[in-house]
Specification:
The chain is an alpha+beta fold. The chain has two domains: 2-75, Ubiquitin-like (UB roll); 83-162, Orthogonal Bundle (DNA polymerase, domain 1). Helices cover 31% and strands 11% of the residues. The protein has helices at residues 20-27, 72-75, 83-90, 100-115, 133-139, 150-162, and strands at residues 2-5, 8-11, 46-49, 52-55, 68-70. The protein has a five-stranded mixed beta sheet. It is globular. Pfam families: Fer2 (PF00111), Fer2_2 (PF01799).
Length: 179
């Protein structure tokens, strides 16, 4: 199968039962996405597929032929952080860090949903959703932080949203081919 991961066209041959998460971690050595619960309940494995956030543990790799996949590694690197990564650092939006890659990918995808005008269960006006603290909490409810860094995570997301958010899916940072 073929797809694009973090801006790089990839071709792999894997068992049809392989999850997208296992493909990323075990076959492409992209270990940023974490295997937390392996049941779609924690969000640690969240990645962006065609600009939309998904739990990669619940998705078979073969379902993503020709898709554009962005992992936390594709958002930025230590020399050039993505705005959401920089905001998480500035607001201490992590403690143990295990959930952080999924939180960041989910937050990027969530801001894209807000920019597209998608409401949530707590949106007071579906025609013009705003990003209140309640909205952020509701929209990020699929991502669990066992350390309870939620106030800092919400502050990081609010900062990026106030700075203009992310109008479209992120442009992935190109990665060199793995040997």
């Amino acid at each position: 199968m073929q797809f694009t991961v973090n801006g790089q066209r990839r071709e792999v041959d894997v068992d049809i039962r392989t999850s997208l998460l296992d493909l990323l971690r075990e076959h492409l050595a992209l270990t940023g996405s974490k295997k937390g619960c392996d049941h779609g309940q924690c969000g640690a494995c969240t990645v962006l597929v065609n600009g939309r956030r998904i739990n990669s543990c619940l998705s078979l790799a073969v379902m993503h032929q020709d898709d554009e996949i962005v992992t936390v590694e594709g958002l930025g690197d230590p020399e050039r952080l993505h705005p959401m990564q920089a905001a998480f650092v500035a607001h201490d939006g992590y403690q143990c860090g295990y959930c952080t890659p999924g939180q960041i990918c989910s937050a990027v995808g969530m801001l894209g949903e807000v920019a597209a005008g998608w409401g949530s269960h707590v949106s007071p006006d579906l025609a013009a959703p705003e990003l209140s603290t309640e909205e952020i909490a509701e929209r990020m409810s699929g991502n669990v932080c066992r350390c309870a860094a939620y106030p800092n995570i919400r502050a990081a997301i609010a900062e990026v949203a106030e700075d203009g958010g992310l109008e479209a899916a992120p442009e992935p940072r190109r990665q060199e081919a793995l040997a």
